Amino acid sequence: MKAVGLTHYLPIDDPNSLMDLELDKPKPTGHDVLVATKAIAVNPVDYKVRAPKDTIEDSPKVLGYDASGVIEEVGSDVTLFKPGDEVFYAGDITRQGTNSEFHLVDERIVGAKPQSLNFAHAAALPLTSITAYEAFFDRLGIDVDGANKGETILIIGGAGGVGSIGIQLAKIAGLSVIATASRPESIQWVTDLGADHVINHREPLRPQIEHLGMKHVDYIAMFNDTDGHWTASTDLIRPQGHIVTIVENSEPLDQQNMKMKAASFSWEFMFARSMFQTPDMVEQHRLLNRIAGWIDEGRIRATANDVVTPINAANLRDAHAKLETGKAIGKIVIEGWK
């Protein structure tokens, strides 16, 4: 089967950083389904895993953590799907990735593809949807059915992949959304997605929040630069409020403001359930099905902003390079094998 992978971890402008490959087609066992991939999407985790380092892989490593496709074959323990089902999912960071013609994935982290979307637009959704959903409803404890209606959430990095779906999920929960964006095109993007207010994360945040008539916000979702926004976030969070981040830190995170406010802080990492085979792993199957339902009901719009054909190393290298600039809006999707 065709695939795109690596053996050496190199800068993205090196042609060997991602290479076209021919690999053996895998066989599903247990809870695995074998998916014929139709489209994939690229996320920051792809280039973070691929980042230059001295490691050399004995056999090619395949990246990719978003896909949509059709189930080709199922393992002996599979109960949720059958061959021919159309699915979307984000995969498991501890296994081979989705950048291959056929891909093995545990059924418990797979959802039924939204019927109203083609494969390309469906592929843009899984990783970011799972991340935003878990960040808001599992980590921040926001009630998905609206019990927190009217409360405020600051989404730092509103125009990125997670922010784009996060704005929409926050609106479904009835929150007042303040999203950050810094360029005219990204400001327009988050506004179109439903943000109630837009502020610039490249300028001091407190004066902009106070200009909106607020002193504090109830929740903060840091989807960009934890180190750079930590001090402002701990200043802006309300007493007993809650902050969540998805971005690793490199500097110590001062806890004094958090302590004085009795505020709380959570990490969100959507691969944790599959990585540790947690007892509630099937919750990702359920939440993807819920996302698909909201898509088909018109409550959420797709977030793909750049769709490229075909799936190959050159197009994947280009997508990685675009993401590494930090200026991508929405999601980059690549579809079709040739």
Automatic annotation (TrEMBL):
Compartments (UniProt record): Cytoplasm
Molecular function in Gene Ontology: oxidoreductase activity; RNA binding; zinc ion binding
SUPFAM superfamilies: GroES-like (SSF50129), NAD(P)-binding Rossmann-fold domains (SSF51735)
Domain of life: Bacteria
Limits of the Enoyl reductase (ER) domain: 16-334
Keywords, comma-separated and alphabetical: Cytoplasm, Metal-binding, NADP, Oxidoreductase, RNA-binding, Zinc
GO cellular component: cytoplasm
Pfam families: ADH_N, ADH_zinc_N_2
Record-linked InterPro entries: ADH-like_N (IPR013154), ADH_Zn_typ-1 (IPR014182), ER (IPR020843), GroES-like_sf (IPR011032), NAD(P)-bd_dom_sf (IPR036291), Quin_OxRdtase/zeta-crystal_CS (IPR002364), Zinc-ADH_QOR/CCCR (IPR051603)
Subunit and interaction comment: Homotetramer.
Family statement: Belongs to the zinc-containing alcohol dehydrogenase family. Quinone oxidoreductase subfamily.
Protein name: Zinc-type alcohol dehydrogenase-like protein
